[in-house]
Design goal:
The complex is a heterodimer of chains A (495) and B (361). Chain A is of the alpha/beta class and 495 residues long. The chains are: A alpha/beta (495), B alpha+beta (361). Chains A and B meet through helix 3 and strand 4 of A and helix 2 and helix 6 of B.
Chain lengths: 495, 361
Amino acid sequence: MKKITVAVIILLFVPYFYIQVTRSEKVTNPTYPNQFLTADEYCKEKPKKTLSFRESQIAELLTAINSLEECTTIQLAQGTFNIPNSFTINNIKGITIQGAGKKLTTLKFSRQGNSNGVDVEASHSFTIRDLRILDSAKNGLEIRLSHNVIIENIEVTWSVQSGEEMSNNGAYGVYPVNVTNLILRNTDSYFASDAGLYVGQCVNAWVYGNKAEFNVMGLEIENTINALVYENTLTNNTGGFLAYDLNKNTIVSRNVKVFRNKIYNNNNPNFAKSGIVKTVSAGVGMVLTSTREIEITENYFANNNTTDIAILSGLVAVSSDFSSWPMKNWRTYKIYIHKNIFDGGSGTSIDNGNINEKERPLGALINLFHEIWSEQQVQNGKEKPKVANIIYDGVEYGKTMLAFTTWLGDKQGNFNEICVKENTGKIFPTLMDINLVSLLNNSENPTRESIQRAILNNKTVLYTNENNYGGEPPKGFACDGYKFKGMPIQLGESI
Amino acid sequence: MTILFFTLFLVVNCSQKANLNKDAKPIQILVELTKYNLFSEIKQNILIPNERGIPYDLNTALFSDYAIKERVIFLPDSTQIQYDSEKEFEFPVGTIITKTFYLPEGFKRLDGKLTTKLETRVLIHQPNGWFAVSYVWNVNGTEAYISYSGENIPIKIEKESKEKKDFIYVVPSRNQCAQCHQTYREAVQKIVPIGPKARHLNRDYEYTTIKGKQNLNQLQYMKEKGALVGLPFWNIPKLPKLEDQKETVESRARAYLDINCGHCHNEEGAAGINSKLVLTYNEKDLGKLGVCKTPGSAGKGGGGLKFDIVPGKPEESILLYRTATTDTGAMMPQLGRALTHKEGVEILKQWIASMEKISCE
């Protein structure tokens, strides 16, 4: 018998090493300027120019932005500027676009333009502030491949604010991508048909004091290294906050601190036309998927109908057809949720009770699981439970490991370094370790029977106050988790 | 022996290096196109370059809403183009490249102008890099004026079809010109010409010579004219023409993707960097080419589909959806197209359909 055990252990090392070698994530070390050289700083010693425009001077304005000299400030007076195509800035340093206020100066676009509203590329030390972007055909404000960018006091919105036509609104409100050194602050986004505020493939991002309301996803941090995300208000979206990594991107997210944000009442029906956000169930406060090294602290969570926080393997996000999980493991790990305020009212109605297995399969699965779980609780004489405040799918390995062995894959536990500690508020935030692997029916999709079996065998666990998240790892979740390492560069006082 | 080497070195050196005119002064950017003195005959629907101009075509060209395009290179005196087998050729400072867009038959402009000339896009090689801007023609096609901001021209189509509906022809703004023409080679942003690469230029053109009209290979013609230096005797890359039935579907599809998408979707282009989809003709990594690749933040552009290319299943491939659709927010390329290019989309469809069926899931 002993020999067999030893042989099994040795044999298991083979797939283990295989997985370690083939699945290890690349850590990229991007280079970045060693200071945040704002437009003002960059232009300090250089000749500067200010060009002012009124709403009647569209032709002059468009000519000016297409023949800019560096260190020019474009000043836009109070009023509505009807832009026929796109407002573009390209390959020029030290530009400032300055409106009269986010409710006072409006750049109005039309669907005919078939382009982003304000579109900026390769323009370092760029600042845009104090204006509104209305009805862009694509993204409201997109900035690509630029360094040292400040976006402040901007409002992005669309006039269509109800009905099916909303899905034709532009995708993203604010969309900085491949930006190194970014400040996004005091900016509001409404009615975007994807994420209101998006930060993607960025290095060193300060995202604070913003508001996202009535979008499909409120705020999204994607493939971003070093980010401080704080004091944002995310409410009345389908989902409040999403941290997610695209597969195969060379910028792999790490070192993110999400704090003092208000994430409540994100229960709006999903109106996305397509894309990954179309699969998000209504009522989700925060989704963390295929990402890592995130410290989540001092945030306020309440009244998110499905759940406050969902921690999901990227595999789950990619395909709810579990028999078809891709080879590459998209772990979600090193997540530290501590000292947040949970005020309850969440988990009362998954996807607002509007379950759609085809369009939002994850909500449907959680719903099926919750139904069976609730039945058993009631049978045991307990109250019908709410959905947990924190849902963790418990996926630590991918398909190949499942194929090798089920008994190793479906163990409870915390190999992903998920830590939950010292949260406060009107309620104790419950944590559900679904242990999705145990729900699978011989590596195939879960069935009612396989879920029942898993629950009966205590493979899935709901942690409430009494048992304190199952104690320390590797068994439980009560631990000191990932601590934000700080930003590699500091902002000067004038910023 | 030393002398032999020295002679060889001289021969190679003399024949390989072009005069790139690096010390030239910048060209003044002018409001009127005709003031550059590039054309000898300018009439309502005619624009003929002067004797300095070298007209050329591409094997497979970028689709621009069925507009007919005339391209001309103007070199400064006693300067030459430096050949490159992969990248765009290196042009001497002071080079001007023009591309004039004409409305095709059956298309009618609704802005009241009589000329079929829509615009002439100009690339000027200044000492500090290329300058790109478009000039828009006046009512009678006798003068074109610089348009930094671009222009929308409404077009009516006499016989509408599924692919051809009334549309807005967009003259790009200067910044939009840059969006397609810029590269991030060695992480530095630069504006470069797109068409003048060996693989696109390697074809015949009907030149007017002293012997009359003659079909000549464009590269050979340029070399013989003393305009091109470094052209090898063999191994010059060549892409097929889209409409050439003798070529394989795959090579035509790859040629089409190269010229229509490759300027952004390459390792050093904005789209290649952001989305990791690389559509240049010589990309060998099927994953980068889009096979079973999930898109990089396509958002609503994905049309509800999962993978860029699903082999054997064009209808499930985002690549086909985005190149065929005219839906705002999804259509590719992002600039310069309002109509569906029936012929181009058809080749892409055949190509994906011809791939061996595999499941991407």
